[in-house]
Prior knowledge:
This protein has one domain (3-202). Helix content is 23%, strand content 32%. The protein contains six helices and 16 strands. It has helices at 32-38, 88-91, 95-106, 123-139, 180-183, 204-219; strands at 3-7, 12-15, 22-31, 45-47, 52-55, 57-61, 67-73, 78-83, 111-119, 148-153, 158-162, 167-177, 194-195, 224-225, 231-232, 238-239. Strands 1, 2, 3, 4, 6, 11, 12 and 13 form an eight-stranded mixed beta sheet that branches. The protein has a five-stranded mixed beta sheet with strand order 5-8-7-9-10, covered by helices on one side. It has a three-stranded antiparallel beta sheet with strand order 14-15-16. It is elongated.
Amino acid sequence: MTVFLTISNDNVQIEGMLPAHIQAHEYLVIDEKSKKNLENTQLLHNVETGKHQKGALLLSGKFNPCVAVVACFKNDEMALYHAHRGHTGLTGIGQASKDASQFFTSIKNEVKTIYIFQKSQTPDHSIRANEIAVAISKIFHSDPEIPINCIVLNNYQHILCDAKKNQISLFNDIEIVDNILDAQHDNRFSNVGQHINTNQSITIEVTAQNVIDNRKALYKDRVNINEEGDMVYPDGLIIPKKLIPPSYQVNDIPNRPSPI
C-alpha cells in the first residue's frame, strides 16, 4: 500500500497507513502544493540530515548511508534523529555531536522505547546502526527499563513518524505528483505495505555483542576498561559494563586492556 500525504495551512492528512506500530511502504506520495506547504507548516517537522527534532509529526530523508533513530515518548510525541556520522555523531568532540548527545540526555525521562533502523542489504549500514545503538545505550545506561532495539529492513530512504497514532512508517521513495486523487487511482501506487513485527527486533544486548565481534580484528588489544568497567575503544565508542558479555569482563584492574 502507498501512503498519501497532503498538507494545508491548518491540516495534515495521511491516508493509506496500515493498522501497525511500525510499517514499510514503497512510496510516500505528496502533491506539489503540499510539498510547498511542507516548508512553512508548523504541523509537521522536516528533520534535516544530521539533525534531531521532537514533535507529533516528523518526516525525514534521504537515508542513503544515514541511520534513522526514533524515540517514542510516554506522551503523544516522538523524537527523530537523522544520524549521518555513525556513532561519532554522538561521541565526537564537535559541537554537532555534543548537541546530539545533550538532546538524548535531555529526553531521558520522557522516553519509553528507542528504535534504530538498519538496512540488511548494506553491511556497512548495519554496522553503523549497531554502533549508534550502543552509543545511545551509554547515554541511557541508568535506565535499563527503556528498550533500545534495532529493527532490520531490506532498505529504506524516508521515514514518517505520527506520534498521535503511534505509527512509524518507512519508505523507499517519495513521489511528487500534480494531483493526489489521480495518484490514488494509479496502478504504480497499488503496492501492499508491510507490517514490521517489533517482537523480532534485535535487543541491545545482542547488538552490543555484534559490535564487539565486528571490532575484534580492527582493534585487537587496543580496547581498554575504564574505572566504571565500560569497554572503551580508541575512536570514542563506549560499551557500557552492563552490556559486556561475562567472558569479556575485566573487573580487577581499571584501564587494563580487555582480553579481546
